[in-house]
Design a protein that fits this description.
24 helices, alpha/beta, about 625 residues
Length: about 625
């Protein structure tokens, strides 16, 4: 109920609000009502027609913004920057809600990868299984967005919208020529013929080996796109290939090509859906099941709310006696120390945080099994190995669920699980090692900075930023990398029950889609997070129909953590790049690059965190620095 301030003198404000509010409440409850005028002889009283109000609800769910995997923030900010699991929870609630008779999903340029799109498609399928139609309003139309819309019963686009069904493309930016002009020498070593993570710094284009593997997985992603559109829209595959070659469609052209069902605005989509469910004027629940942010921070209660917003709240533990499946998220680059999900430095999966979460799940008597949800391009070999050991030590069944990317270090962790489940479009594998350093001595000399050295020991300068590797330093570093590579391949062989020769044919940095990995024996089955949870239930001896509770780990972070996490974390990830970029943060460097308008520098600075690890002198399990997939 909304209160209104009437224009009475100040002393009467509160009294007037109370009186008005009480009157409205009484009228709403039926205790006070206006009597109709008495009937006269000339005008007999007639009963007013009673219109039965519809109790049916159309749930409206907006899919927009960044929807990363992971637990995300707690408390009042849970839906301000929502993570994928919150969106899926809302869709599942619509499936179970008896009042909801139909659902409209508005797709507005969400930041999605192919595996996360599969999670949303599966949630839409559960709504349809409940007997409720789902209509898509496709505002933005990239191939991944279209894949979500195509899971719905109908697709509509606004008249001014554009559908971009343009295939699959990967881009990689190379910086060698720019570094040469600056006098900077990047020394990157790799174990694995196809492990091209360092090529952006050492070459001006892809090596034949790197191009071959990109052509392989891009080709498979293209075939998956063709198959998906052909199946969802009931079109011949050759027709779909021809449409992809056209690529860009106006909404009318998309309708003519049978890629969508209608052209119209959101209100028209809702109206059409209402007719389909047989309701003239159903209630439309905008942003269905979304938590609202209370912006009233006045008084003591407001102060408490503000502190909750800043600090976050721990999720309430599942109540009851149901067995639990712990879903442990490994999201972002894998690093030593604590995880980060902050605004400046980006997401990172810290070994300390992930290990603590796995340990807590293993010790919880109500947790029957653990699901590792991995969305990571890899990172520190040491941190990956520490997490692998914690998974191996868990005294409960463990299933790995691979999201958009679970490659290199991300895959290293997965092989400790009893079962691996991937989406068809997951990028995985990349079994190899890369690492090196950047020598900036000549670049500094050009601007008048000179360095003098006193050292003792043949290899004492192996991590120095002043000079490239000496032959002995290079040999020492390469020896450590080869040993780490041996460790990686042996873990894969043991975890996947493959002989060493098989692993070697799949290793050396090769990248696979989830579908290719399934054929090669690197994963066990294709599916979503729910499929992985079903696998975990089966391994734990839980019956298929038995209800379980999900426990999400690690615990959500608060706004203070996100804002100041970089300063609070031990071990600055910019070690090794500080001399190159003056110790600036990613955000500072990015702004500086824009202000200076340095061609090519902006994307390099944007990847400063990844570069810091790649050039730290430690072996890394990493995909290429920047892979832009569209």
């Amino acid at each position: 109920m909304t209160g209104f301030l009437l224009p009475f003198p100040r002393p009467f404000h509160h009294l007037s609000v109370v009186v008005v509010a009480a009157a409205v409440a009484l009228q709403a409850s039926g205790s006070v009502r206006a009597e109709p005028p008495a009937a006269t002889a000339e005008q007999p009283r007639e009963a007013a027609p009673v219109r039965k109000k519809s109790t049916a609800t159309v749930a409206h769910v907006r899919i927009a913004g960044s929807l990363p995997d992971g637990v995300g923030q707690g408390g009042l900010l849970a839906d301000v920057a929502p993570h994928l699991h919150r969106l899926v929870e809302r869709l599942d609630k619509a499936a179970d809600d008896g009042r909801v008779k139909g659902v409209v999903v508005s797709i507005e340029s969400p930041d999605l990868g192919r595996a996360r799109a599969e999670e949303i498609r599966a949630a839409i399928a559960r709504i349809q299984k409940a007997g409720k139609p789902v209509a898509a309003q496709l505002v933005s139309g990239s191939p991944v967005h279209y894949a979500v819309a195509a899971a719905c019963d109908t697709i509509s686009m606004p008249p001014a919208a554009t559908l971009e069904l343009t295939g699959v493309r990967a881009e990689m930016t190379f910086f060698k020529s720019m570094l040469d002009r600056l006098g900077v020498a990047a020394e990157i070593l790799q174990v694995g013929e196809f492990k091209g993570a360092g090529e952006p710094l050492t070459r001006d284009s892809m090596s034949p080996q790197l191009r071959a593997q990109y052509e392989s997985f891009i080709g498979d992603l293209y075939e998956q796109l063709v198959e998906r559109v052909a199946s969802d829209r009931r079109l011949p595959a050759e027709k779909v290939r021809a449409l992809i070659d056209v690529g860009v469609f106006t909404s009318d052209q998309a309708k003519e090509a049978k890629l969508i069902d209608s052209v119209g605005y959101e209100d028209e989509v809702i109206e059409t859906l209402a007719k389909r469910i047989g309701e003239e004027s159903p209630k439309v629940s905008r942003d269905y099941a979304e938590r609202k942010l209370d912006q009233d921070f006045s008084g003591m209660g407001g102060l408490v709310k503000l502190m909750e917003l800043l600090s976050g709240q721990k999720p309430s533990a599942p109540s009851g006696r149901n067995k639990r499946i712990a879903v442990v998220h490994v999201a972002g680059e894998i690093r030593e120390g604590k995880s980060a999900d902050d605004l400046v430095m980006g997401g990172a999966a810290g070994s300390e945080t992930v290990m603590k979460a796995i340990r807590a799940a293993a010790k919880d008597d109500q947790v029957a099994a653990i699901v590792l949800r991995i969305d990571s391009p890899g990172g520190s070999a040491l941190a990956s190995d520490l997490i692998w050991r914690e998974v191996e030590q868990a005294n409960k069944p463990v299933v790995a669920s691979l999201s958009d990317i679970a490659a290199s270090g991300g895959y290293y962790i997965a092989v400790a699980a009893d079962t691996i489940v991937a989406a068809p479009g997951t990028l995985t594998g990349s079994i190899g090692v890369v690492g090196g350093k950047v020598a900036v001595g000549k670049a500094l000399e050009r601007v008048g900075v000179h360095t003098d050295v006193v050292s003792k020991g043949k290899n004492s300068g192996w991590l120095s930023l002043q000079e490239p590797f000496t032959p002995d330093e290079r040999a020492a570093f390469l020896a450590t990398m080869k040993e780490v590579y041996r460790l990686f391949t042996s873990k894969v062989a043991a975890g996947r029950k493959l002989d060493h020769e098989q692993v070697e044919r799949l290793a050396e940095g090769r990248v696979f889609t989830g579908r290719q990995a399934k054929e090669a024996g690197l994963v066990d089955r294709l599916g979503t997070l729910d499929d992985a949870i079903d696998e975990a239930k089966a391994l734990a001896g839980i019956k298929a129909g038995e209800e379980v509770d999900r426990m999400l780990l690690p615990e959500p972070r608060g706004l203070f953590d996100d804002l100041f996490g970089a300063a609070a974390r031990g071990g600055d990830p910019l070690v090794g790049m500080a001399a190159t970029l003056g110790g600036m943060s990613s955000l500072q460097g990015l702004l500086l690059a824009r202000i200076a308008a340095v061609p090519g520098l902006e994307p390099l600075v944007a990847e400063v965190d990844t570069l810091a690890f790649l050039l730290s002198g430690r072996p890394q399990f990493l995909l290429p620095i920047r892979v832009r997939l569209r």
